[in-house]
């Protein structure tokens, strides 16, 4: 789950689109519902959840403080962050840049968990999710990126990101309800979108 515990609604690159900020927040909130359902199904099947979250330039922070900040009522993204709040059994990496892999322990964690397929979800689809997917592809991971669990700065940006995920990175972008899990917790091939 990329950048779902977030206060990104008050970041400069979201503010540039100030006229549609309310619409974007609503889009993120509507993405949170199918993502929460997918997470419940994945957890029930034994699939680990890993949060790859920005540290928001807070170099002395930790993930608990990030969650506390982003779920506070004063945080613009608190409704999404609360709905997708991590549990004690979830994993997390704090990322300093756009990709969940760049300068993080994500690769080591996936290796330790013996993961070869990743389900990438979250915000912003055209930036953080896409950069993480690119790095996953370059490391030979099979990519699932449910279209209803990804949002971007604009609808056009999201469409472009999904197109790139599907065509360039060979990812499966079927909606989350089409993704099923084997008994061993691995995602099964979903029907393509």
- In DSSP terms (H or I, runs of 4 or more residues), the helix count works out at 7
Question: Cα-atom Rg, whole angstroms?
Answer: 15 Å
Helix content percent band: 25-40%
The profile of the biggest β sheet is:
2 strands, parallel
Low-pLDDT windows of residues: none
Shape descriptor:
globular
Structural class estimated from helices and strands: alpha/beta
**Beta-strand percentage range:** 5-15%
- Alpha carbon gap, first and last residue: 20 Å
Query: How do the strands of the widest beta sheet line up side by side?
Result: 1-2
**Average residue pLDDT:** 84
The tally of strands reads 6
SSE sequence, one letter per element: HHEHHEHEEHEEH
Can you tell me about this structure?
The protein is 40% helix and 10% strand. It has helices at residues 12-15, 21-44, 63-71, 78-83, 106-112, 125-138, 155-167; strands at 50-54, 91-95, 117-119, 122-123, 142-144, 150-151.
What's the SSE blueprint?
Blueprint: H1 12-15, H2 21-44, E1 50-54, H3 63-71, H4 78-83, E2 91-95, H5 106-112, E3 117-119, E4 122-123, H6 125-138, E5 142-144, E6 150-151, H7 155-167
Parallel strand pairs: 1-2, 3-5, 4-6
Kindly summarize this structure in a few lines.
The protein has seven helices and six strands.
List keywords for this structure.
193 residues; alpha/beta; two-stranded parallel sheet; 7 helices; 40% helix; 10% strand
């Amino acid at each position: 789950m990329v950048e779902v515990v977030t206060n990104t609604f008050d970041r400069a690159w979201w503010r540039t689109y100030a006229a549609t900020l309310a619409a974007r927040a609503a889009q993120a909130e509507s993405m949170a519902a199918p993502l929460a359902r997918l997470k419940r199904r994945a957890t029930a099947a034994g699939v680990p959840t890993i949060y790859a979250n920005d540290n928001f330039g807070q170099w002395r922070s930790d993930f608990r403080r990030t969650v506390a900040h982003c779920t506070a009522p004063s945080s613009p993204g608190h409704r999404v962050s609360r709905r997708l709040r991590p549990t004690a059994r979830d994993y997390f990496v704090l990322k300093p840049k756009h990709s969940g892999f760049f300068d993080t322990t994500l690769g080591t964690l996936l290796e330790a968990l013996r993961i070869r397929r990743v389900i990438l979800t979250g915000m912003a689809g055209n930036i953080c999710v896409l950069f993480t997917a690119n790095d996953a592809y370059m490391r030979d991971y099979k990519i699932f990126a449910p279209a209803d669990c990804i949002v971007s700065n604009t609808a056009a940006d999201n469409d472009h990101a999904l197109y790139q995920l599907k065509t360039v990175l060979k990812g499966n972008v079927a909606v989350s309800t089409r993704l099923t899990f084997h008994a061993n917790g691995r995602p099964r091939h979903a029907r393509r979108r």
